[in-house]
Amino acid sequence: MHLKLAFIWGDGLKEKEGIEIHEDEIGYLALHIGAAIERTKSQHVKKRCLIVCATGVASSQLLLHKLKAAFSGRMEIAGTASVGEMSSYDLRSIDFIISTIPLQNTLPVPVIDVHTILSDDDIVRLKRFVQGAQDTGVLRYVSPALTFFQQDLQSREEVLQFFVNVLKEQDRIPEEFEQLLLEREQVSPTSFGHLVAIPHPIKPATDDTFCAICTLKKPVLWGENRVQVVCLLSIQKTYQKELQSLYQFLVRLTERKEVVDQLIKAASFGELTAALQVLEHPNEKKGHPFPHL
């Protein structure tokens, strides 16, 4: 839909002003139009969190009631869990985790470490995160299982096939997903300059929203642009979450060459998320490493 609107806008500009917009620029405009559309839908949405404690019983209940009192109306607590229950917990509907103990495993959502008896510092950090949570973008949709570094691939077609193979193994995509990716590329290449491509199916096709990221040893030709960082974006078929921040995040990525350079050099999930964090909070120069805040 966003791409269609961009083409309509481009045709109107050509007819009225005699200015012709290149297909690559049309794709770039589509990202901005998507962000603008989502911005009109913006509203204060409660962020859902999961409380994790050593046992998940008494201490978690104490923390739960304190959080409800401190953040009434601004935070929805999905439940409590012990460390042992984390491996089986579905985090797809969770925006972040509040934990009273260090969590060693890398998780697909941010983790905020707090004391069982909330300190003033804990409250400040939680308020900062909850109030700024609407600005967080793609990191909530990225996970170690969806990040691949320094791949030796030689063409756009090889990159797309690599993604499809991996996502099929993870049972994340329907059979027609590859065809939907190719149909979108036929409309116009999804490379947006500064060595970045953001391929995506021509219509929402998956059960959840995710962003798979692949960096390449050497740039490949993607339409008329060279690409070395590929962010494959898939929006869930019936999404409810407000995606303004995700569109804005991707637009910022295509504009920040220094961040792209860091991504190309990244060799681990931690290095990748550290590079991307500046795009999550563009007004801040430094921040705590993801996922622990």
Question: What's the arrangement of secondary structure elements?
Answer:
Layout: H1 2-17, H2 23-40, E1 47-53, H3 58-70, E2 75-82, E3 96-99, E4 111-113, H4 120-132, E5 147-151, H5 156-169, H6 177-187, E6 196-197, E7 210-222, E8 225-234, H7 244-255, H8 257-265, H9 269-280
Parallel strand pairs: 1-2, 1-3, 3-4, 5-7, 6-8
Antiparallel strand pairs: 7-8
Helix pairs in contact: 1-2, 2-7, 8-9
Task: Name a few traits of the molecule.
293 residues, alpha/beta, four-stranded parallel β-sheet, four-stranded mixed β-sheet, 9 helices, disordered C terminus
Describe the structure in your own words:
By secondary structure, this protein is of the alpha/beta class. It contains nine helices and eight strands. It has helices spanning 2-17, 23-40, 58-70, 120-132, 156-169, 177-187, 244-255, 257-265, 269-280, and strands spanning 47-53, 75-82, 96-99, 111-113, 147-151, 196-197, 210-222, 225-234. It has a four-stranded parallel sheet with strand order 2-1-3-4, covered by helices on one side. A hairpin with a 2-residue loop joins strand 7 and strand 8 (225-234). The longest helix has 18 residues, at 23-40.
What is the string of helix and strand elements?
A: HHEHEEEHEHHEEEHHH
Low-confidence stretches: 38-44, 283-293
Q: Which descriptor suits the 3D outline?
A: elongated
Helix content percent band: 40-55%
> What's the total number of strands?
8
Gyration radius over CA: 20 Å
β-strand amount: 15-25%
Overall average pLDDT: 78
Q: Return the structural class.
A: alpha/beta
Roughly how many Å apart are the termini? 36 Å
| Widest sheet: strand ordering | 2-1-3-4
Q: What is the count of helical runs?
A: 9
Q: What can be said about the biggest beta sheet?
A: 4 strands, parallel
